[in-house]
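Example 5.3 — tryptophan synthase
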Amino acid sequence: MKVKKIILNESEIPTRWYNIIADMPNKPLPPLHPGTLQPIGAESFSPLFPQALIEQEVSSQKWIDIPDEVREMYSIWRPTPLYRAYEMEKALGTPAKIFYKYEGVSPAGSHKPNTAVPQAFYNKKEGVKRITTETGAGQWGSALSFACNHFGIECEVYMVKVSFDHKPYRKVMMNLWGAKVFSSPSTHTEAGKKILASDPTTSGSLGIAISEAVERAAMRDDTKYALGSVLNHVLLHQTIIGLEAVQQMEKAGELPDIVIAPFGGGSNFSGISFPFLRMNFEQGLKIRCIASEPASCPKLTRGVFRYDFGDTVGMTPLLPMFTLGHTFVPAPIHAGGLRYHGAGAIVSQLLRDKLIEARAHNNVEVFEAGVLFAKTEGIIPAPEANHGIATVIQEAKKCKEEGVAKTILFNLCGHGHFDMKAYEDYFSGKIVKHELSDKEVANLIAKLETPEIPA
Ligand SMILES: *Cc1c(COP(=O)(O)O)cnc(C)c1O
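Solution (predicted structure tokens):
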């Protein structure tokens, strides 16, 4: 019998997260104050985040201990399984060996609880009573609701309108774990009212929802804000994925040549790839790490490396990032988790230094990839995950053409059980190729008012 699944036991759940900043040749640039354009200190984040997370955000310590309470919660679904995709390999007729790490086994159905749990834990420890956040497809909102429910913290979620309308059951899931959910833009915040006044029919965006959540958190002392991607501490928590995958690939007697993951703000990509990049840094290996993004929101492949705001209204500090501009509202594609204008500072620096790669796929291509995967491997992927699968298929086909048997590992970061509307639209031909034109990209970039970053 072929061994399809490589599992670890609970005692093998890593005890420390890996902080890639310690190994980066060029460290990420600091956040800037939007008024003075001077680097801002860690203390300016304290209205929004608990101290422990701010310390992790600016830490350059290579390994950071995972608290016991967090590991205990992790053990509900971790270690997650790693599979060999024999059936998809066969369907593609490729000599490549394809492996995937499956994060859809978490209670919320994606990798997001890996950071929601420690974020809720540190907030609880510092006496926080309520956490506000945004959510795109609802994955992050459900993960944070689950974590807040466990630690007894109130949770308030601003859900991007297009997803709120497309995915009503994600909202119910959040309600079940005790969270309050608002369609964003809402009339609950000044930011929301401002956006609605200028564009009453907007489909919403992650940037807008972040503005709303940040505004609410800044209003009250007992309320903090949580972000499900982009920031350094979020990427740090997600390295649990890759640290397990390194052990599992060793058990399988394999080392990946290529590591692939879908890319929204960079958390699941960082989670799986950083522990392999560590091998590149420490052992001089040349494992290629590829981030897969939608052609309708191509900040990595067609954006610019600039300081920009993390939200639409401009309430956050300026962050160094590959961006399409913070006012960009991506087309309402079904992969809601990838509809974000920018990329995290660490990933942006790695891309600029050519230590990682990026690739964009159109909407039709990604659903074709997801359907092939579901039919061969059985698991129905989240539409976001389909972007990674599209890259895997391209690389596997290249192996076939070139007659080389590479080992490919990808992150199946979530299941698509709440995404039947997306698959239904695909089957009824409603999913159309959507790609930004050169003119649209040029217009977006021309709108950026923030300073350029010299090479
Ligand atoms: C949130 C999410 C993403 C995108 O966010 P990243 O921070 O880039 O990982 C991708 N896939 C799924 C399933 C998600 O929930």
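Remark. The radius of gyration is 20 Å.
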